[in-house]
Write a structure and sequence with these properties.
The protein is mainly alpha-helical. It has one domain: Amino acid/polyamine transporter I (Up-down Bundle), CATH 1.20.1740. Helices cover 69% and strands 4% of the residues. It contains 13 helices and five strands. The strands form two sheets. The protein has a three-stranded mixed beta sheet, covered by helices on one side. It has a two-stranded antiparallel sheet with strand order 4-5. A hairpin with a 5-residue loop joins strand 2 and strand 3.
């Protein structure tokens, strides 16, 4: 009989969202809540624009197809919570995505996966900086339009807002256990749902007020066919950013109580969560496109398709800002912990890891320097590429294929001992290749968009 042991995964991929006590109390409803909270976020703001580029057929169809890919990813991941290592007969409990890759595919794959996962966290910091600064600016613009009229010149540079967000993050990153406070995740979840519902609600109200459904089957027309190709690619990248949740899946599964079997509970939770998210996304994307048609803004809350009620738009953008302040810390603290732990283990005698006192405030030099440098780096990149849709598309496409498709399929082959050239092997290989082409297409479009915006 195989030996059973649990292996601690160390730092979790999502340090705050799923931190729980050691007592397993999770149910199908808590799992659904974790998944939906992790998935619904700033990406929802670009869905109306994405549907507008794809049109009334391809737009909703793309949302459904990405939902099916996400559901397949979830179905595969449920198999990896426990892995019986054939080399030593030990059953390993994988508490995180990275640990599953390491135990099933080995150290080389784990290093590549870790690099992609940490890059995924880093790019979120850049996106959150861009999105939050746009939202702060939108509040000032909204008030300006309300006071001076919709034709007034209410343009403001983003730089000062990005610097403000960066300063807030530098201070927040030095607060002890700031990322571990329960109110932070609760606030982030409430804020994300609030601004998403306001955005979709305003779109629905605008469509009803228009008395007709705008838009077309082909989406927004362009002067040149190649322009349409790039915009479609960016739209696919935006949708890819909005859906997947592989990095939090096994952590969620680890919190579930048993019986029933965790795999059964997680499969049920993932189906309900993906279905709920898809309906929500179809409403967000569809209502915005129905309201504005070819004029659908890139960010439904900051593109000023809506001018009134200005106070509601201000409130929604304030919710975005509050959500992303906490969200930045939720994800960045993982990189902080990994980097600082590595330095401490590498240089245990360094004075750089010791605390010091500045104006009676205790500070750690390593944390002060590294975390400040990290925030400065994400803020600087955001200033260089302050383009919401293009950056979101790049972020969605660059890690979608390896994290959502490739590694889960490869782990499934090893876990289930799938023989090459069998029916299941051919189907999954074909699926992997098709998703690779889609990711490359979306990545190419997002890079082209970034270059055109930055240097065009």
């Amino acid at each position: 009989m195989a030996e059973y042991r649990e292996v601690d995964s160390g730092e979790s991929d999502t340090p705050l969202l799923l931190r729980t006590s050691h007592k397993l109390t999770g149910t199908v409803w808590t799992a659904i809540a974790h998944i939906i909270t992790a998935v619904i976020g700033s990406g929802v703001l670009s869905l109306s624009w994405s549907v507008a580029q794809l049109g009334w057929i391809a737009g909703p169809l793309s949302l459904v197809l990405f939902a099916l890919v996400t559901l397949l990813n979830a179905s595969l991941l449920t198999n990896f919570h426990q892995y019986s290592d054939p080399q030593n007969g030990v059953t390993i409990t994988n508490r995180s995505y990275l640990q599953a890759v390491q135990s099933i595919l080995g150290d080389s794959s784990a290093r590549i996966c870790a690099l992609l996962a940490y890059f995924n966290l880093f790019k979120l910091g850049v996106i959150y900086t861009i999105t939050s600064s746009i939202s702060i600016r939108a509040i000032q613009q909204s008030n300006c339009y309300h006071e001076k009229g919709h034709e007034a010149d209410c343009e403001y540079a983003l730089t000062s807002y990005m610097l403000l967000f960066g300063i807030i993050q530098i201070i927040s990153s030095q607060i002890p256990n700031f990322h571990s406070t329960k109110w932070l995740s609760i606030t982030a979840a409430i804020m994300s749902f609030t601004y998403s519902l306001i955005g979709s609600g305003l779109g629905l109200a605008q469509a009803i007020g228009n008395g007709k459904i705008k838009g077309s089957i082909g989406g927004v027309p362009t002067e040149k066919p190649i322009q349409k190709v790039w915009l479609v690619a960016q739209a696919i990248g935006d949708i890819a950013f909005s859906y997947p949740f592989p990095l939090i899946f096994l952590e969620t599964q680890s919190t579930l109580k048993s019986p029933p079997l965790k795999e059964i509970t997680m499969k049920k939770a993932s189906r309900i969560a993906v279905f709920t998210t898809t309906i929500f996304y179809l409403c967000c994307g569809g209502f915005g496109y129905a309201a504005f048609g070819n004029s659908t803004p890139g960010n439904i809350l900051t593109g000023f398709g809506f001018y009134e009620p200005y106070w509601l738009i201000d409130f929604a953008n304030a919710c975005v800002f509050l959500h992303l302040i906490g969200g930045y810390q939720i994800f960045s603290q993982t990189l902080y912990a990994i980097s600082e732990r590595w330095y401490t283990e590498k240089y245990p005698g360094s004075e750089f890891i010791n605390d010091c006192h500045v104006l009676k405030i205790r500070l750690n030099l390593l944390q002060l320097c590294f975390r400040t440098s990290y925030v400065v780096l994400t803020t600087s990149i955001a200033m260089i590429f302050p383009y919401f849709n293009e950056v979101v598309a790049f972020a969605g496409s660059v890690t979608f294929w390896p994290l959502v498709v490739y590694f889960p399929v490869e782990m499934y082959f090893v876990q289930k001992k799938i023989v090459p050239w069998t029916f299941k092997w051919v189907v999954l290989r074909t699926f992997t290749i098709l998703c690779l082409f889609v990711s490359i297409f979306a990545l190419t479009g997002s890079i082209q968009g970034l270059i055109a915006k930055r240097f065009g």
